[in-house]
Amino acid sequence: MIDDVSAASAARGVGVVTGVATIVTGVWAIVGRAAVETASGADVLVLTISVASIIVAGVAATVLLVPGRAVRDWMRAGLGALLVVGVLAYGFATTSLVARRPGSTYVDETSSTVFAAATGACALVTVGAAYVALGRDSRGRRATLRWAIPAALLTAIIVTTSLTMAVGASRDRIIDGPVVGDSVASPDDPTSIDRVAFRIRSVKPQVWWSTAGLVLVDADVVTAYHGATGRVLWTYEKPDVLDGEVRVINDSATSTVVLAGSVVSMGLDAVTGRVLWRSARSLFGGSDWDSGKRVVVDDEPGGAARVRFGDPRTGRTAFDETMSCMPAYASQAHDLVLSSCDDRRAVRVIDMETGRQRDVRLSGTLDDSSWASALGNGFVAVGTGRDAPYSVSVVDTRTATEVDHFTSDLVPISASPSGILVMDQPQERMRGDGRDVRIRDVRAHRSSLIGLGSLRARSHEWFGDTLLVASGSDGFAVVDPHTRAVTRHADVCTPDQYSSARTSDLYAVPGAMLVFCSNEGYLPYTMEIVGLN
């Protein structure tokens, strides 16, 4: 039978070991808590459990160092009360921690959550050991050491076994990313579009440009291609949990593939496929993500608005501001343009990479009907009016200046690098049967109309300052806005055995101009993407 001395020594030995274990596991959990942003609020809970456990264990370990003759009844009574409260709090906290992982079946079960639970358990053992030790007589450090050594070995075995089982059991609950590909440099923009560099067959694909070329989404498969050669860089079949939109967000030097889900979202490097983040609290995803936009604007009480701008490389919110009115806004690359609530003839250009904010004075006056639209190549249109005629200002975000102001029955749809605009009806991108192209030069402040002859404009894309116009079964035409010359390009689509191919769209990516050829004769519907350079 264990006497009081042995029992007290054993309790002190165990208390010392678990006290040290509390500190180690607590620090580990705190350092790694950012990873559990995969669960809403779990990082805050991990921090709370870890800090509270370290403090409690520190108090208990301090009491263990009190000489036996200095022990007071109130110390033991306090430890008893702390132990009871601690057990209840630990049960509640660990239950909440498990509940806040949005379905362990969906998200990473990180070591941080496991260590937070271990920290709380070790703290409770430390308190219990101190309670036992203070209730019995204890003499000599050797006796304590004899019990501390096996207690340390037993604790190490239990902790190692628990972590191994937890990590092993969680492997099938981790959302794995694609096999990481090689990093490649951004291909140069083509100087001509006379050569077919590659052809890609797909069924109703979604395509975005990236710094390496293009990213194609076909059903649940995401594939990245090199823009100059069409070589596959990486491919990924997204799991069912990533049930939302897929979108590529481009900054000045990086491209990120955002795979949104109603529960959790994930960000991949568009060049290599490397997983950048997983999160259930990201601005990119869930009910707040509006059609893949980088900017989220929510109504606030009293007519105010909360404006948030996401960082696609981290999944975090880079800009968060509540404004007194609902602003007109547009984002382009890393720039955010916001109308002012106090000055109705000004907008702000905010660089999200540097935090720099610049005010731009407008020639027109904004009101509640004002809107903003990103045109590409650094240009943003800020207009007023729900119906024609529209008062339009064109802002160059690179210089933060108004470069043009005009009134028109049409609105700008896109801009070339030098500031030539394509004009059309709002919310459309020349998806009609028009036989002409309406353009405006923001430098010369002049609008003009270019006839296409027998061609019908279905869509358009800029190739430098040359405009390419898709024209269905007629292929596409090359339009020079300066000379007003229209040249029909040789057809590049490949008809299949059942139907004729139609040029339905054009899209510029680094390294190539993409021509979308649709074969609409018989099912299944197929799309051929032809890369020209």
UniProtKB/TrEMBL annotation:
The keyword Aminoacyl-tRNA synthetase belongs to this UniProt entry's keyword annotation: no
Transmembrane regions listed in the UniProt entry: 12-32, 44-66, 78-99, 114-135, 147-169
Coiled-coil residues: none
Top-rank taxon, per record: Bacteria
Keywords: Membrane, Transmembrane, Transmembrane helix
Official protein name in the record: Pyrrolo-quinoline quinone
Organism, as annotated: Gordonia spumicola
